[in-house]
Amino acid sequence: MTKNPSELAFLARGIDSALARKLREDNWTLAKLQSLSPEKLIELGISDTIVPVILGEGRPPIPPDLLIKTLYDNRWVCCVCRDAERPIIVHHIKPWAESRDHSHSNLAVLCSIHHGEAHSTHALELTLTADRLKAAKAAWEQKVSRLDPLAIFKATQLMSCQWWYFNHVRIFEIAQQVGIEAIQLQGFQGALRNGACDEDGYLCSREGLLYVGQARSLSLYRYMSNMLQAAMEHTCVRNISDDLDRGTLDRLLLGGDLVFVQGSYQFSDIPDGFGADLVRGRRSVNNVEINFVFNRNESTSDSARTEWLRGVRHLGCLLRVNKLERSLKGTLHIEATVLAIRSAHEELKSRMYEIGLYKSGLIGGADEDEEFNLLACEDVLADDESDEDFRVS
Ligand SMILES: [Zn+2]
Ligand SMILES: [Zn+2]
Prior knowledge:
alpha+beta, five-stranded mixed beta barrel, two-stranded antiparallel sheet
C-alpha cells in the first residue's frame, strides 16, 4: 500500500489516488504544487474545489494519523464496491463545511464512481446517503479486520506449518476476556484426560518443560491452538510483516493492539531465569525494533526448544503491543508480549492473500520523501533504507 509521503499529502487534501500517483511520478511534491497558480493546478488535473485546499486556503488537510488509519482499515479500497482496480478518494461522510469533522468515523474510502454518487443528487435525493455509507464502511472494515487472523490460522492448517510456542497464561486470559468457554473447545476432553488441564479447563501448572509425554503434548497442543484460534476470532489482529515502517506504525499502533510479524528474529538467553528458561526475542528492521521475553519451557516440542527458538530464526510471532517509544536516534522501539510463535509461511510475509490489491498497483514500493512531515510537524518519517535485518544462515 502506498506510504509515499507525497501521495499521502495529496490524498489528505482530497485528490484521488490515481492522480496522486501520477503527480508523484511526475515529481510533483506538495511544496512544488503550492508554488503554482490556480490555473496551472487545474491544468494538472486538480479539480477547482481541491485547488484552494492545495494552496492552503480551503479546508485543512486530514491529519496523518486519521488518514492512515482510515486507509489501512479499508485496505485502500472503496467500501461500497470493494473494487481494487479503481482509484480512491477519502471522503467526509458529513461534509467538512457542515461538520468540521476529520475524525475516523466521518471518513470513508470511496472509488471515484461512488464518490461521485455520494455527492450527486438524483431527483433531489442522494443515492448514497450518509447512513448507507456508514453501513457500507462498517461492513467492509469488519471484513478487513478478519482477513489477517483468517490467513494466520489457515496457514497453520498446512502440515508443514505449526506453532512452536504458546504463552499459555496470556492466551487463556484473552480467551476468558472475550467469553470463550474453555470446556467447549475441541481438544478440551483430550487435555483433561491427559492431565494437561483441570475440569474447568484451567491449565495444570508444571515445573520445567510443559510439553512432555506424547499423549499429553499432542492433546495440550490441540487444546491451545483451538483456544488461540477461538480467541482471535473475537479480536483484531493486524499482520504488519511487510509493513515495519516507523513513519506509519507509530500512528497506527496503540498499546494493547495485537499484531502478527513474520521475519528474522534473534533469540538470546537471559542467564538466571530462576527455574524458567527465559529468552529475549528481538527483531530489528527499518529502524523499528521489537522486543519481548518468554519462557522457552513453554515451547511445544523438543525441536522447537532445542532448535527453532535459538539463535537467528525466520518465524512468525503473534504479539501484543505494550509500549511504543521513539529513541533520540529515531528508532521506534516496540515492547511486546509474545502470545504465540509459529513457523514462517510465505503467504503471511507478503500477504499474498491480498493478491487482488497487489494486482491493482495500489500496494507497492514507494520511494519516500519528507513532504508528509510538513503537515505532521514531526522529526523523521522517510525510510532511510537502513536495514539491519538479520540473515538466516
Ligand atoms: Zn466504489
Ligand atoms: Zn467527498
